[in-house]
Structures are given as C-alpha cells and as structure tokens.
Amino acid sequence: MESGNQIVEEPIIEVQGLLTKFDDHVIHENLDLSVKRGEVLGIVGGSGTGKSVLLRTILGLKSPDGGNIRVFGKDLEMLPEDERRAQERRWGVLFQEGALFSALTVAQNVQVAYREHLHMGQKLMDELAAVKIAMVGLRSGAADLFPSELSGGMKKRAGLARALALDPEILFLDEPTAGLDPIGAAAFDELITDLAHTLGLTVVMVTHDLDTLYATCDRIAVLAERRVILIGTIDDMLQSEHPWIREYFHGPRARAAFAGK
Amino acid sequence: MAEASGAQGPSGQGAAASYAVIDRVGGFTFRPAGDWSVTPILAIDDDLRAFVAAKPVGESAVFDMSALIRLDTAGAWLIDRTVASLEAQGVKVSYEGLKEGHKILLDKVGEGGVPKPTVPERSSLYVEVVGRIGAAVVAMGLETLTFVEFLGHVLATIWRSIRHPSRFRLTPLVHHMEKAGFDALPLVCLLTFLIGAVIAQQGATQLRRFGADVFTVNLIAIIFLREVGILLTAIIVAGRSGSAFTAEIGSMKMREEIDAMRTLGLDPMDMLVVPRVLALLFTMPLLAFIGDIMGLIGGGVVAVMQLNMSPAVYIERLRAAADFWTFGVGLLKAPFMAIVIALVGCRAGLDVTGSAESVGTQTTSSVVRSIFLVIILDAIFAMFFTAVGI
Questions:
Q1: Would the ipTM clear 0.90, i.e. be above it?
Q2: Where are the transmembrane segments (chain A) (predicted)?
C-alpha cells in the first residue's frame, strides 16, 4: 500500500445522476459526486439534505432509485453476491454512535472481520486487535471492556479500530466528532489525519464540525437543492456567492474556526 | 538458509507473502518479499513464529525490505514483532531498502509497544457454581429488600394523596383503568370461557367413569371460583399490563423524562406509579369477577351440551355447590395480586438504565417475576384459607 497523501486523479468513488426518494419525497435528484483516491472529502449540508442517506446509498445499505454509483470502478448493484462481499471488505465504516456489537468486547469487535472472513488463528487475532486498538489511541486495558462500559469518545475510537481491521482503502465516517468535547474532537481530527496519511486512506466523512473541515479535509462537497452544488477546497467555499454556502462559511462560528488556523 | 512462502492466489502479481533468511558474516539477512497484507500473511505467520522461537544465531540482522511489494498494518505487525523478539534475544537489527511509506507504517505499529493479549481469568467449575449460587441468593435478598422499600414508598405516597387530594391525578388513573382494565376484557373473557369449557369437558369425561358426572358442576364451581378464575386473570394482566407498565416507565427513564420530571418539581411516584397501582387495584377484582362468570358460562355450555343438563338445573346445582365464601376467597386475592403486578411492573421500569436493551431485559424480568410472585401468593392464600377453614 502506498502511503502519503499524493492525490491521484482517478475517481475511487463516482456517483452519477443519483435519484433518492422516500415515497414522494425526493431527497437527491441528479446528484453527481466524484471522490479522488487518497483525498479526505467532507460532505456538508443543512439538516435534512440527505448527507447520511447519501453515505448509506454509496455503501449499498439503501438502493438508489435512479442513477448509478461506482466504487473501485464497479457498480455495487450489478455485482454478484460474492464480489459484493469482497468489495465491502475494501472499505470500513464508522457509524455515528460507533455501532459496536454490544455482546462483544472491544477486542472481539475488532476481530469479527478476521474471524468471519479470514478464519485467522486466535493468537494472531489477539495481536492484531491489540495493534489496531493501540493505533486508534485506546489504552490496552480497553480491549476487554464491553461497549456499554465505554465513553462516547472511546466508542468512536473502538468503532474506528473495527473499521480499520482489514486495512480498508476507503474509510467512511458519519459525523465523527458529533457528541465529543472540543479537546476530544480535536484529538479525533488529528487521529484521522494521521491514519489517513499513514495508511494511505481515502476518507469520506459527513460532518457539521467546521473545525474538522478545516483541520482534516482536502475537499468539501456541499449538499443543497437535492444535489452537490459545489465541490472544492476551503478557498473555493469562501469565494462562493451561493447564499447557503456564504452563510455557512462566513457565519460567526466559521470565522472563529478559521481564525484558529 | 530458511525460506518460507505463503501459497496465496496466483503468483506473479505479488499476491503471496514470503521471506528468505540468508546467512552473512556476523549474522543473517532477513528478506521479506511479495505482498505482506492481512490475507497472504496468514500462511507465513506460524513459520515466522517458529523461526524466532528457534533463536537464530548471529550478532546482527539486516532486514532487507527492497523486495517487499505491499505492506499493510498486519504485515507491519509481523515484521515489528519479529524485530522486537530478535532484539530481545540480543540481536542488533537494522533495515535496508526501506520505502518511506513502509517506514511510516512500521513506526505507527511500533508506537503501541508489544501488545500483551490479556488472558481472561478462569476459575474452576466448583468455584464458579458456588459463586453463582451465592451471587443469586444475595441478589434475591437485595431484591426483596428493595421491593419492600418500594411498597412502603408507594403506600406513603398514597397516604399523602389521601390527606392532600389535590395531589391526586384523576386523569391518568382513569386512563390506566381503561388501558389495563377495560381493554383487557375481551382477552380475559375469551380465555376464561375457553378454560372453563375445557375443565368441564375433561372433568365430565373422568367423572363419568364413576357415574358421577353431575359433580362436574361442583368441580367447575370450586376450581374456577377459588383458583383458576383469579389466577388466569392475574397472569393475563401481568403479561399484558405489567409488561406495558415496565416498557412505558422504562422508556421514559431511558429518555431522561423521569429526571426532567424531578427537576420540574414533579414526583414520578405521584405522576406515574400511584395511578398505575390504583388502576390495577380497582380493575383487577372486576376483571376477576367477569373472568369467574365467563368460566362458569364456559363450563355451563359444556354441561348443557355434553351432559344434557338444562341451564336451570346447571344454575341450581351451582348454587348448591358454591357458597359465598367459595366466591369470596377467589375475589379476595385479586387486590393483592393487583398490587404485586403493578409494583413489580413499575419498579422494573424505574430500574431501567440508559440503553434500549435494558428496557427489553427489564420487561422480560418484570413479567417473569410478577407471574412467579402471583403463583407464590396464591399458594400462600391457599394454605391460609385451609388453616382458617374456609
């Protein structure tokens, strides 16, 4: 795996003309999005613009009502079951609340993929789980705790360790810093940047956190009016004349976040 | 001189992991090659462990990484583990031909130090069994204590409501009487009717052998009025309303609504527990009464159809078989069972902690516990009534 953040001009995820609706309520219409290999992309948008729905659709948890989505150059909907499983092993997902399996300890949560997909021996599983747990910055004692015994920040880190178990190429994050205190959130931003760099990950995250956008994202995609209205760097955002983007990136909280950089 | 390779997939695409150990003056060169990512390395993990465990001789080792095509954290861990073990054996290790990306990974994996997989403590079966029994006994004792305390708390709250009627909540009381009492009617009626018919039918078949089938009526009257009517009603109410109490209060507890009530100066006892307890206290005897009647009707239908008894004769024989106390003994139990079911249901709801999972377990345990207690209570009453001779 090549490391470093060289951004190669070849889309790893490509969404074209996506249509998503719930009954008569149209969420996305003619939505295009392309994610480059090796970049960290933030998806922002007002409440109800379907950021999380977009993430779920890319992951295949919800089928698109129109258009197509290609990840690693393949349309998930068209793939036979076993290829689809193989594809799913090439990405990792951190859900908003961690979504750890409550009946398993942190270490067992990380080992699920090893056990189910690779039939790995217990000794190596224990070692690798310990490596991942250390990598996401949890102390080693946390390995034997159950999810109910963890704080919010620890749950997210444990969820991240599970998402990284198979060394995925793409990491999806749903509101990674929501519910964390500013210090915890900043530490998590740093962790994600560090891991993306070390492991050569492509990261796609949905976030509301302006600090996270500034600290970690190479590019930002803005969701509004049922599609991606703008995708680009922070500077592109700041120069945009679109009223919502102006309000978002020039509001008092944005100025405060930007002043810190 | 040692070599190992993982036979993984088609070769030539770097799809397999392998390594070679080449002797050198003063030590050896360790040469990993191919794809050292999580799947291929499974094939060489054991060989690598054996290689280190055999304590390779030499003062220094050179890790020549130039042939390595792909490395992920799992592969990096294998290399880091091997290096750490060699260093612990006193071998000096140096790298050669290390790519920048691989170095970052190795450093990252090494940061956590050598992880020690924790071994969970396992005590012997004997200690485990005795320990669990002890823990269960202690838990049961504590549960009894908290139940008694809760009963006292509820009684004190009811007493306060009587002295200050303005604190009393009429609307929720009526609401719960409708939900727990009135809405349970169809189910109670249907089940008691059916069980009454079944008992009559089975009883008639057995008693006919002795030519005593007219005593079927006595059987129905005694067994239904004294025991089955109330017990069946109590079990239905426990399953229907006791569980609903736990789930309602439990989900409020989970969403911090109960804490919100307290901060607004409202007592959850007044608002949630007392109306439910009183609602069951008032409706259970009525439900049990209707259950008794339906059971007798069910028995009567069988008697009329199977024993060719006219309805008038059936009623006449009923009056002869049962006096007031046969009926009174059954109904007397209703309020006590009502209180047990309501208290267990509310208490379990208040015991919910944070998670949705906890609402589920508390609801289950509330139903199990209240049915258990209802049956125990019934047995105690049976002994008591026998002792006092009614």
A1: no
A2: none
